[in-house]
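Predict the 3D structure for this chain.
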Amino acid sequence: MQNQGITAGGVIAIFLLLALLVGGGLVGCPYYKVWERKMAGQAELQYQQGARQALIAQAAAEDEAAIKRAEAATRRVLGWTDAAKRGCEALGRPSDRACEEQLLKDAATYSIAKEGHEGVIISVGAPVSVAVDPNRNPSSE
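Done. Predicted structure below.
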């Protein structure tokens, strides 16, 4: 019968395998940590690049919205100017600059008060007089 126990050579072989595993772990662990940090750094970099692209897209959208608001304000003011000219003509005061300016101020003030427009740069007179008849004498009221 053979001895089924572990021989001295088997014990030495197992001990050497364990030593290699432990030694490999001690050598490989720092490399794994470096690799892990590298992967974490790359993930963070990709996240930051995505966040940067989102901020750039948001800024571009805000710029486009500001341009659209400015264009709308310009169209509004041009409309007020045209309406003031037509209003003065209807009152029999064509090319009367004072009449046009008062109607323009009234329209701007009404629009700003009603809709709360932001960014409309216009000189608004106060108090606002409704230009039903610009020829009326304000002191008669």
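The chain has two helices and no strands.
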